[in-house]
Task: inverse folding
């Protein structure tokens, strides 16, 4: 007995190379390249994917930068104008100034790890979407 249904690789649609009337595939987006095949940077800049990438970058970078600069400048200002506070001993010979100074390193490492995770989870997929606009593959 023979099968009445052809496997998907041998269907009439695959043999004809055309689209069947009952497909629900989205048409491929046009590539944003110029006549020589180079990326059209103006078109990429104006694309929704690129705007989303810029938005995602600003969502993390702007608050993180402002917060870290406020923390660092606060440390410098307190060191310059509140030496009694910064010299107050917490325990033994460890004072507030030393503790805040060491916390600067902790803050830097924490921000680096947080940005790395944010970049991997939120930015890299969007970068891939922007690269797909020009059919560039990730190296």
Result:
């Amino acid at each position: 007995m023979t099968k009445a249904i052809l496997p998907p690789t041998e269907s009439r649609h695959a043999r004809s190379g055309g689209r069947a009337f009952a497909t629900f595939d989205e048409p491929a987006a046009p590539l944003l390249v110029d006549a020589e095949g180079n990326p059209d940077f103006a078109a990429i800049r104006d694309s929704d994917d690129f705007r989303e990438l810029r938005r995602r970058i600003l969502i993390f970078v702007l608050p993180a930068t402002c917060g870290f600069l406020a923390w660092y400048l606060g440390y410098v200002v307190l060191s310059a104008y509140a030496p009694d506070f910064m010299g107050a001993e917490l325990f033994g010979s460890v004072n507030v100034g030393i503790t805040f100074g060491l916390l600067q390193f902790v803050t830097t490492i924490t921000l680096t790890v947080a940005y790395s995770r944010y970049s991997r989870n939120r930015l890299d997929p969007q970068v891939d979407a922007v690269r797909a606009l020009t059919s560039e593959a990730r190296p």
